[in-house]
Amino acid sequence: MRKPSVGLVGGGAMGTLFAWILAPVADVCVLDVRSEQVAALAQEVREEHGDPRMVRATLRPQDLYACEMLFIFVKAQDTLNALRPFAGKIDPACVVVSLQNGLGNEEALKAALGGRLALVLGVTTEGATELSSGLVRRAGSGITMLGGAGASPSTVAAVRDLLTAAGLSTQAVYDIRPQIWGKLVANAAINPVTALLDAPNGILLDDEDARELARAIALETVAVAEAARISLPFHDPCEYVNSVASSTARNISSMLADLRAGRRTEIEAINGAIVTMARRYGLGAPCNEAMVHLVRARERMSVAAHG
């Protein structure tokens, strides 16, 4: 039986994990801008406790133009630049799937590829830590939820079926916005606090001040969601954030990983986007705004330290 052709844009931790997950059920090709990363991925991809699997890897966007599905795993701030080479080049029938963090990904993808895009948005609680190029540690099995943002229900179902065949717990929903905002609440509360404290997610359970700050950020974010008439997928945001911190207590957030590596974080697409939305509705979000300024400052320090 012929495997569908699947392209992955971004060969970092999540891109490598999904390449490894999809390899048994799809013809996978990973695009990355780092030649050393591409060389490693082309040799093999592996989850720490799994067998090595073979995928293709490339520096050339044109090698993904004929893909049937295109998964986006670059950071939110890199979406426009990463997708511009695909404008007018990919098959019109290609399904684009974004599991990225934060807000604004739909707008960036449609700005890069056109508004008539067959776009599937989703959230996943799958997590990964990159141990070395091509090797990742999976942070437990999670749940992936998908919804259409220009793609038909049958197209969303096709993506769901592929991920399910690959062994992921996957659901298709009519409206993905509640799930996107639900994950945003957790990311906004956990990521900058742990990044600034240079500590795993479990610090929110162990330190009262860290927990109280995360609580304040979560409540601000919920207020913005309510103003935007988003129905969140939980009743108690603080309990939800604590549950996420508990289930990922030993993990470090992607924001902390970025700071440690001297990379730009997704602070603008997470807390920065919340501040922007709050202003749109005449609300204040001082805790989120403080996180933006502090993480920006830490970014500059980290980049300088890494030369």
Short description:
This protein is α/β, with parallel strands linked by helices and 307 residues long.
How many domains, as an integer? Answer: 2
Mean pLDDT figure = 95
- Would you report the number of β strands? 11
Helix fraction, binned, reads 40-55%
CATH C-level category of the largest domain: Alpha Beta
Q: What CATH architecture label of the largest domain applies?
A: 3-Layer(aba) Sandwich
Give unreliable regions as ranges: none
Secondary-structure element series: EHEHEEEHEHEEEEHEHHHHHHH
Q: Give the overall shape, derived from the CA principal axes.
A: globular
- Per DSSP, the total helix count is 12
CATH superfamily of the largest domain: NAD(P)-binding Rossmann-like Domain
How far is the N terminus from the C terminus? Answer: 50 Å
* CATH topology heading of the largest domain: Rossmann fold
Question: How would you write the strand order of the largest sheet?
Answer: 4-2-1-5-6-7-10-11
- The assigned structural class equals alpha/beta
Radius of gyration: 19 Å
Strand content: 15-25%
The largest sheet, given as strand count, sense and whether it forms a barrel, is: 8 strands, mixed
